[in-house]
Known about the structure:
The structure is a homodimer.
Chain A: H1 13-36, H2 40-51, H3 59-66, H4 70-82, E1 86-90, E2 98-102, H5 104-125, H6 130-143
Antiparallel strand pairs in A: 1-2
Helix pairs in contact in A: 1-5, 2-3, 2-5, 3-4
The first copy, chain A, binds a DNA duplex (30 and 30 nucleotides) through helix 4.
Amino acid sequence: MTDHLPLKLEHFLPYRLSVLSNTISQGIAREYHTRFGLSITEWRAMAVLARFDKSKLSARQVAERTAMDKVAISRAVGKLVARSLVNRKMHQDDRRRSVLALTPKGWFIHNQVAPLARGYEREVLKKLNSEEQVWLNRILDKLSPL
Amino acid sequence: MTDHLPLKLEHFLPYRLSVLSNTISQGIAREYHTRFGLSITEWRAMAVLARFDKSKLSARQVAERTAMDKVAISRAVGKLVARSLVNRKMHQDDRRRSVLALTPKGWFIHNQVAPLARGYEREVLKKLNSEEQVWLNRILDKLSPL
DNA sequence: TGGTTATAGTTTCAATTGCAACTATTAGCA
DNA sequence: TGCTAATAGTTGCAATTGAAACTATAACCA
């Protein structure tokens, strides 16, 4: 076994993914943080509330859809409610659940951040030709259910 | 422009990369954290010191090689020194610089963590056939200099 | 030289996060 | 029913992180 030999971090998949992912996420996040005062968690919560607007999601559902834990979502939603970007009601049939939705003010901000995020994604994908983009999606599909 | 339409997070590249990368990194990190009490930063510093053993790196060089900031490295190295996993001397010609190297005890732990990390990477790559693995590397090469 | 600027690394303090404990409510079932 | 277990969400506290300020040393240059 030569398994104990030093790793070459720059060829080590988990490290490369981590650096790439952080670079991209922080690049977008810095922009919407300075312009709109949103954290990553807050923006993700807004994004799923926008997408599933009709379904009136609960905090737990937001947590599932954003792959974040419920404490993070609780705090993020708390701030969004305090800023009147999200409206929180109690579920009629299950008084434990919350019923969340973007306010008009929340939609207004969402509609500015969404293109910004899309634009950044486009910038990244520009570095790949269309064949590579297809492979990347296929690879992410295969790796994602880890 | 329809750019303001809600994002589908599950198809949004930065989000997918972030979830995948966190899943992988935390999977490995939990293992070496419970077994050896190392944080991700600490392990990365050790990995770099192992790889460039001969060069006697400074903290700044470790920071560059691990893509972490100098404050994080300063703290990580501080803990590693406290645990006698890393030896820290002052550079002879430039007394600002530190000269870092793994101790035998540090090597002993490194030699256990390295195979663990490699094994985890193998597990991940097992989900891809060799053609996909080649494409993944090519894609990461093209995206990495962001 | 000497005076300014730059660099290496640490420290400080506030903000963020992560985990466990907690409250309130509902579900399951004998 | 009434008791126990499960679920939704919040809170508290300790640990981690991030940004700026700070110390010490070296480099630059008039």
